[in-house]
Specification:
Tetrahydropterin Synthase, Chain A, rod-shaped
Length: 254
């Protein structure tokens, strides 16, 4: 009876210790173990044992995490105030560094994302931010990845979600776009006038070499005008005779 009274509490203690010693982690998790305050190693996935009381563990999730970076008011290089928010994707690739090199890697990565976003946007002009988002995303990602590498964190992607501008600036951008379209229109018209003037100059040289050809052109113009039934065309008979004679002579010559 006395032996039973002793073994039963010992069995209970053994079960409690064993339950504390057995650890199970999922495939996407790792556990950093500290033994008496010193780094012992990384365990997982699956089943493993620790020494209760002596060992302490920190569980790390290795899956990709998305950070919602709240809107940041940023002044661009050309002194335009914009509100920018983004999404940052990162993954822990070294659990030991993530635990030992930074106090709270999640909070640190989130704060670093905000400051890096402001720094990168502040070095660009508004047109670059609006038209080259892929380059901006890549630049932010590269800078974040360099900064988080000592923490054992890999930044896998950055996406600018929205770039907001106040109404005054929107109206200014609309006016700028309208002015740009007007400029292109004027350039196209000027190019057309230049080509037309060049062709007219060439035609004038041909008319100068064969003066009677201008008479033929004049008669052709009369014929085109005469197609309008409500118009009367009056031609100089002498000019018509000269043109007819020239055309007849030219035909015989051929």
């Amino acid at each position: 009876m006395v032996l039973t009274d002793i073994l039963f509490p010992l069995a209970i203690v053994a079960v409690i210790i064993l339950s504390k010693a057995i650890k199970i982690v999922n495939e996407y998790e790792r556990v950093v173990i500290f033994r008496l305050g010193r780094l012992s190693g990384v365990k997982g996935p699956g089943l493993f044992l620790i020494i209760p009381i002596i060992d302490t563990v920190v569980k790390i999730d290795l899956r990709v995490v998305a950070i919602d970076v709240p809107k940041q008011a940023v002044i661009t290089k050309d002194n335009v105030t914009v509100a920018v928010d983004a999404v940052v994707y990162y993954q822990v690739i070294d659990p030991t560094k993530a635990v030992n090199e930074v106090e709270n890697f999640k909070y640190a990565t989130a704060m670093l994302s905000q400051t890096t976003l402001r720094d990168v946007i502040g070095q660009l002009e508004l047109d670059d931010v609006l038209s080259n988002r892929e380059d901006v995303n890549r630049n932010i990602q590269e800078q974040l990845d360099i900064s988080t590498d000592p923490w054992g964190i890999k930044v896998t992607g950055v996406t600018l979600r929205d770039v907001s501008i106040d109404d005054t600036m929107l109206r200014a951008i609309a006016k700028q776009a309208e002015a740009e379209r007007e400029k292109r229109s004027r350039i196209i018209l000027a190019d057309g006038e230049f080509i037309a003037a060049t062709k007219m100059k060439d035609a004038a040289r041909l008319y100068e070499e064969v003066p009677v050809s201008i008479k033929l052109r004049e008669l052709q113009t009369y014929a085109e005008i005469a197609r309008e039934k409500n118009m009367i065309v009056v031609a100089n008979s002498t000019d018509v005779a000269e043109v007819a004679a020239f055309s007849k002579a030219f035909t015989k010559k051929e």
